Amino acid sequence: MYKRNDLMANVMVTSATPEGSSSSDSLEGRSSDYANKSYDAVVFDVLKVTPEEFASQITLMDMPVFKAIQPEELASCGWNKKEKHILAPNVVAFTRRFNQVSFWVVREILTAQTLKIRAEILSHFVKIAKKLLELNNLHSLMSVVSALQSAPIFRLTKTWALLNRKDKTTFEKLDYLLSKEDNYKRTREYIRSLKMVPTIPYLAHGLCVVLYQDVLGYMLPEVEYEHHLRILLC
User: Which Gene3D superfamilies match (predicted)?
Assistant: First the structure.
């Protein structure tokens, strides 16, 4: 079990009246004080949080959203319809989680001030992805890896060149595991190997299976339908 820490910080700016001065004296000079002062915005530094903590916090945020998904949301293919927010609200919420993590990864890398810092952040996310795999959170693992494979990030050749050999090897292994080849065959085999271990699966693949099953059920005779379904699930 992981203890959930609150990573959000509330910043409060307060002013105190110096001892021996009246409140009217304080109010009199307040406007000029504010005019002469500037407060720096609080900047969140992604490198200050360990990959282990990021992975555990992401997983703790993913789990209740995943557990909220109801069987009828999947069986009805409601997530693929115009009324998806009504028919499959939890599937929509879980998909939104995927996009939020992915966009966050891209933003953190692209907003880095220097090439060196950008490479450090890239390395940090590779480590976060590895920790997500160790936690069997394949949904957010795929989200992070997809972000690193996206055009805005993958084209940063100078940044990738600064990545050390260990991180490059880790990323290549994750990319291999999550490959779309043969309908995510390696990913599915990995999930099977976990047996009764708690896992947050990559939902998109499961949704595709359900959708194809629904479509084939209308188009094919029963025997042929079962044959195609076995191929799809293997």
Answer: Ras guanine-nucleotide exchange factors catalytic domain
Residue 82 tokens read as 């115009």
The structural domains of the chain, with segments of one domain joined by +, span: 50-70+89-202
CA distance 123 to 113: 16
pLDDT in tens, the chain (234 residues): 444 444 443 333 333 434 444 444 444 444 445 445 544 555 679 999 999 999 999 999 999 999 998 887 877 666 567 888 888 889 899 999 999 999 999 999 999 999 999 999 999 999 999 999 999 999 999 999 999 999 999 999 999 999 999 999 999 999 999 998 877 788 888 888 887 788 898 887 555 555 445 444 444 455 444 444 444 444
End-to-end CA distance of the chain: 33
Buried (b) or exposed (e) across 189-201, using 16+ Cβ within 10 A? ebbeeeeeeebbb
List the structure tokens of 204: 């998109």
What DSSP string describes 96-119? HHHHHHHHHHHHHHHT-SSHHHHH
Q: Is the distance from CB of 98 to CB of 83 less than 8 angstroms?
A: no
Q: What is the reported pTM?
A: 0.71
For residues 97 and 206, the answer to whether their CB atoms sit within 8 Å is: no
The rounded distance, in Å, linking the Cα atoms of 103 and 149 is 12
Tell me the backbone φ, ψ of residue 40, rounded to 5 degrees.
-75, 140
